[in-house]
């Protein structure tokens, strides 16, 4: 069917593609994703991810020689990377926590001391410290790393879905995120450091994978195994899990978060490595905490770093409590959905009007938010009159009142000797301590309903306004704050209503926190596990599940999850796992539109390549060749990025328009694989980087060694639902739409794909009775087919 | 390109495929799996799963009218099913536990009373009770439900991978599994009831999905939404999760087990429903336990039902302990791999020699195992001399000695007043209580090293021998027994070696259990979560992770996991997620072999259909049609099972050899979708069920309405690695291998698949600035393409 000439081209391409050292690489080619550059409204661009790796023959030939040793080596390096990501992320998390706790601790101590003398001086110092910290954060972000603003989770989700937002995984983003987080969280804004930690984990992973920052990376040979996009994506997934594990000290939660929320293509092999990274994070954080316990870390150590233990709380629950718990779920769903909607609109307005006016506006905006936050958190507790301390029980270990910013309840704030201010206990305190106080058991009636309601309204508004400003900001901790406030409020009513039950308000606060996060982020299993891990109590697992189910269901009735909404806003075009409804009535041909297909011949003149690349912005081009009988055949697909590399390097230019013939000997080695790999988060080569002499333009390139010789194809009238499933499941970047086939060469069913490993001789021997018999039977049947002259009329 | 005539055929098929009420159904068609019948060595067959559902026009037309209401309804039914599966599985689990605990409780009480008088009478009664229980179990299994033997997890894994082992999800298997488990576990064999519970959950789910048992199922209209294999598979996944959740009272562990171990195609939408099922199980079991606490359930209630709480144990761990813990991991890996290897060989021998001799041999075999087990568990403790009870601490609440079969340590066994027998504490006890004793804290030096070692060797041997006998048998609890024994042994040495540390032997027992399960089953995250949930202690999470990592790595160096080995032994051909190494050098054409393709024309004579079906055992046939110019075109794929339905029902036979023309009006409604659906675990229609008159044979069938008009295709020279990825990821059953395309009609990239929901008007409006601009730009570019005469030479 294929003429010799043509066959030669296909064979050459296949030759090279088949020389890959291990099966991962070609599967990788399948599991790829792409999106062409989209001009966003703020002038920045979202870039395509060139997942498809050219299997450079030179590099692969070299690797193929190494064989088993290389494969072992590559596995070792991958695990080593997982180890390093775990250690790195854990250390950064500890560093951020130490810094934040110390800044906040100093701030509250100092302010508190000043309050004793002058209320106004205290307020002034408090406000100025907050402002200074927040200013440092916004300065770093606006001047140095604009991509560090926000939580970064939508962008990471996009990266793992196949969209490389420019600058998202750079070294400067990492630095901006670390120091920006310290400033914004230390400065008392209504945001958390947990979302940024996920981004930080991803950055660390990405940089480790390419041996340093994009600009100055070490081109170490031993990192060349991470030249495939799939391996890099795996590393980033590990980084995300490490981030969550470090942020919440929740290793299992981290694995599940990576699985449920961020990845698009999950492989069970990866789970194992992600799990390892999380375990490492757990061990390193544990060790650091133990080291800090001796007081070497300042204010950090005694409290701090999540785990709001409620193991001392409620022992059991009764059926009567399920109703108020369901009610908490409904509130969570409603408030969460409202939060998503409000933040969406405000962020939209910010992106399109406010932030277009430049960095100065961004800085001023953050400063105003900081001032308002300081004013409210300092001012409002003033209006609350102090509450007398509960009658001290010698065994309970409750100390009342305490200084703000320290670990514990009953914060003194301009109160008398045996009094505390309940609003200050949650408002004039670090968020970690506030949550711990809200979750605390054995402290019934610590808070008045009025204080909780005031706090809920104020903090909710602050959280909505703060979201989307130009500082690194996570939504987990604010969400937990909001949720636990109304949870505790409901708990108070339950305590009053069911007088006799052994109910702890802290339990309801925990459920409230779960419900708000469920209503806003719409995660299920991972959130549930994170809540269990941070509360260190497994007893409430079914209750948390129940509340999450309700709040997610209620939230889903209104809008999408927070990350999806934000991804949409940022024009990160995520491919969902499920095809859209209207795709049912479309075909592949309709979806591909009526664009004229731009082909390349196998051997193409350089000047033609250049003009074609200039004339359109396609990212992939089919390559055709002619058989001797004059028929055309599609021999593969070539990527724009690879063409640009070929044009830039020039080494593959040839004078003759004749294709390379594989009978002439092995394909000459001219390229290094790394040349074809675009560094993460950078723009790669553009057509403007190409400088060619007139002589160059008259030369030819044989594309056969560089093309993907068998891209996936779909018939023109296939339903778009099926096309979508294929595209999404395999993570493709290009699909060729071809005419219906005129004949079928073979059928592949499961039995054709059951190939036994040759190494497992014992197993094959054992299996022979079952499998070989069957195969023999099958062969016999085939022979029988061949002997059926009766059916000749039907057999083509 | 397509002539009118041909177009008509394709259009008719497309017409019907496009009338599906919601997108799930067609995606389902994509996510399908198949395996043709394999004759196994024991004469039984593994059957194909006809995942591909014919989209019967009659049914679909009807549903399409219902529209939104139907979709809401189908969602409600799905959730209702999840609820019912949860409740059903939980109740069965409670029933099994109550029965086992009571049988075992009576047995031990009675025996213990008899021992006081005569040792021999006690032994006789003990042995006979055990034998009677085990006999009942093996009788049920051999006579009534042979598929209930073993754990059933490999078969369920196979089902979810696309292989329907005959009889695995029938009502009789469910009944056999429930009562067989009670007999075999109550009879004191070295096996557990947790694996069978997974199978039970799957059976319940499958039966609920088809409205009762296969034989007598209610053909209720409201269950017709479960006619698609994907929906059924989802239900079975829910059932597996419910089984684990109920078996271990570990809801999150259940979800993760379903995710990590049993499913092959996971969708994030499903996670949510599985999670719900698990939560329901948790609530129902909790309620039942609370009800039993008042003593209504006999011996069940006080202890029983897993959760071996070690929350009162070790508070912290030091670095010095990591070495012995790693050592436990290594032992676990070695012993686990050895266990897999031994059971594999023994089971192979059993299948091929012993069990072929009939049911009587199976019964005798189980009886002998039961006798040996009784003898060892009763006899060995006799050789141990009694140990004096530890000095009682009034506050510790430790009672010594106790009667066997009760909740607690220090079992009295023919001992004096203040003495206990340490070997009897673990051997002459229910497994649940034995594990609780091994895990127990504050009981240092309860067991002597000699006893533990004896128990380890004996129990390990018993577990190996018992595995594979004809009774329902799980490997979780025996694994935990074995692991915790050597774990506690290591713990004892650590206690002796590091005198000063606050070390609990129970902690090491827990780690030992984790390590053995990790070394044998090779699960990671799910096992880790299950261990945490059953020990009700989150503190050891990083340690369990570490131990699991080591034991799995060590085990992987030797062989595959237990379930994979067993699946291989049972000739369940699982398609792994990763392609095999040797596929790299093969093409699609080579894999499909040189078989002659058997085509059907669009309109085919009944006699020809019959002879083709008789002449081969293919399960799918390409259908071709001719254009007016005489060219042939492949218009789709028809399944053998659907052809058989057509032949059996006869309603679609026609006298004319002319195809149905869609311009004549709507396609006539003759079929009900359920007719095309094969009941689970049954053989479906075979060719012998077809009875046709000579008149029938001369008639024709127009296949167009029944064929899958666009099956997935691959070019003939595509690397088999890529083909495998496509086949496995989409869960296909047939792939057509076609020649290389001669031209490309269009290219589909991510942007072509980003279709916005029309309902979301606000979002579209907001997005317009980013997306519409971009699309306009793209259109402009296309126009530009069209205006490039310079490139005409290259544009075909």
Automatic annotation (TrEMBL), chains A, B:
Residues 707-764 form the CBS domain. The chain crosses the membrane at residues 75-98, 118-141, 270-292, 322-343, 363-383, 452-470, 476-498, 510-534. The keyword Secreted does not apply. GO terms for molecular function: chloride channel activity. Pfam families: CBS, Voltage_CLC. GO terms for cellular component: chloride channel complex. It is found in: Membrane. It is a multi-pass membrane protein. Keywords: CBS domain, Chloride, Chloride channel, Ion channel, Ion transport, Membrane, Repeat, Transmembrane, Transmembrane helix, Transport, Voltage-gated channel. Belongs to the chloride channel (TC 2.A.49) family. This is Chloride channel protein.
């Amino acid at each position: 069917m294929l003429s010799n000439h043509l066959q030669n081209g296909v064979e050459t391409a296949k030759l090279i593609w088949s020389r890959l050292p291990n099966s991962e690489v070609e599967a990788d080619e399948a599991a790829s994703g792409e999106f062409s550059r989209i001009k966003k409204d703020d002038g920045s661009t979202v870039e395509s991810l060139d997942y498809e790796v050219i299997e450079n023959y030179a590099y692969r030939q070299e690797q193929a020689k190494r064989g088993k040793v290389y494969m072992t080596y590559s596995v070792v390096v991958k695990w080593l990377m997982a180890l390093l990501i775990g250690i790195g992320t854990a250390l950064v998390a500890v560093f951020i926590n130490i810094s934040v706790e110390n800044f906040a601790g100093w701030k509250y101590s100092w302010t508190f001391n000043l309050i004793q003398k002058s209320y106004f001086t205290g307020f002034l110092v408090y406000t100025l410290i907050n402002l200074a910290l927040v200013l440092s954060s916004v300065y770093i972000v606006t001047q140095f790393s604009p991509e560090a603003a926000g939580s970064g989770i939508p962008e990471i989700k996009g990266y793992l879905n196949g969209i490389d937002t420019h600058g998202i995984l750079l070294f400067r983003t990492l630095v901006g995120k670390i120091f920006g987080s310290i400033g914004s969280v230390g400065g008392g804004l209504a945001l958390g450091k947990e979302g940024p930690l996920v981004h930080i984990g991803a950055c660390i992973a990405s940089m480790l994978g390419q041996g340093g920052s994009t600009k100055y990376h070490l081109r170490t040979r031993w990192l060349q195994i991470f030249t495939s996009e799939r391996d890099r994506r795996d590393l980033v997934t590990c980084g995300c899990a490490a981030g969550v594990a470090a942020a919440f000290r929740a290793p299992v939660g981290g694995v599940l978060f990576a699985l449920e929320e961020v990845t698009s293509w999950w492989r069970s092999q990866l789970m194992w490595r992600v799990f390892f990274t999380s375990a490492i994070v757990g061990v390193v954080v544990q060790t650091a905490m133990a080291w800090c316990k001796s007081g070497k870390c300042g204010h950090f150590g005694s409290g701090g770093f999540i785990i709001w233990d409620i193991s001392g709380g409620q022992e059991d629950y009764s059926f009567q409590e399920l109703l108020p718990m369901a009610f908490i779920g409904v509130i969570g769903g409603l408030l969460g959905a409202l939060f998503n909607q409000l933040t969406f609109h405000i962020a939209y307005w910010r992106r399109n009007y406010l932030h277009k006016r430049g960095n100065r506006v961004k800085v001023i905006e953050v400063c105003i938010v900081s001032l308002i936050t300081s004013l409210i958190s300092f001012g409002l507790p003033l209006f609350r009159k102090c509450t007398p301390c509960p009658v001290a029980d010698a065994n309970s270990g409750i100390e009342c009142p305490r200084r703000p910013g320290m670990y514990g309840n009953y914060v003194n704030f301009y109160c008398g000797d045996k009094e505390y201010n309940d609003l200050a206990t949650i408002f004039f305190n670090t968020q970690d301590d506030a949550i711990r106080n809200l979750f605390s058991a054995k402290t019934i009636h610590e808070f008045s309903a009025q204080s909780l309601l005031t706090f809920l309204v104020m903090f909710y508004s602050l959280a909505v306004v703060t979201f989307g400003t130009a500082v690194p900001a996570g939504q987990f901790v604010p969400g937990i704050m909001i949720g636990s406030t109304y949870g505790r409020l409901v708990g108070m009513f339950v305590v009053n209503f069911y007088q006799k039950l052994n109910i702890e308000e802290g339990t309801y606060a925990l459920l409230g926190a779960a419900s708000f996060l469920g209503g806003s982020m719409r995660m299920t299993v991972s959130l549930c596990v994170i809540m269990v891990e941070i509360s260190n109590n497994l007893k409430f697992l079914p209750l948390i599940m129940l509340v999450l189910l309700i709040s997610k269901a209620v939230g889903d009735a209104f809008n999408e999850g927070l990350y999806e909404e934000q991804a949409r806003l940022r024009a990160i075009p995520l491919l969902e796992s499920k095809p859209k409804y209207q795709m049912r009535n479309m075909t592949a041909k309709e979806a591909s539109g009526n664009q004229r297909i731009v082909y390349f011949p196998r051997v193409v003149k350089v000047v033609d390549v250049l003009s074609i690349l200039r004339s359109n912005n396609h990212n992939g081009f089919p390559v055709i060749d002619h058989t001797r009988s004059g028929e055309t055949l599609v021999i593969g697909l070539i990527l724009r990025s690879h063409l640009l590399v070929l044009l830039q390097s020039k080494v593959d230019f040839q004078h003759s328009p004749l294709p390379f013939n594989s009978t002439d000997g092995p394909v000459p080695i001219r390229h290094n694989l790394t040349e074809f790999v675009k560094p993460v988060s950078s723009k790669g080569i553009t057509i403007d980087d190409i400088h060619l002499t007139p002589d160059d333009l008259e030369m030819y390139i044989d594309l056969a060694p560089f093309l993907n010789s068998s891209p996936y194809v779909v018939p023109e009238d296939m339903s778009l639902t099926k096309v979508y499933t294929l595209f999404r499941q395999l993570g493709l970047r290009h699909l060729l739409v071809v005419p219906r086939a005129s004949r079928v060469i073979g059928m592949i069913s499961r039995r054709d794909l059951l190939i036994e490993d040759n190494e497992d001789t014992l197993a094959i021997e054992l299996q022979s009775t079952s499998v070989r018999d069957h195969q023999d039977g099958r062969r016999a049947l085939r022979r029988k087919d061949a002997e059926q002259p009766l059916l000749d009329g039907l057999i083509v």
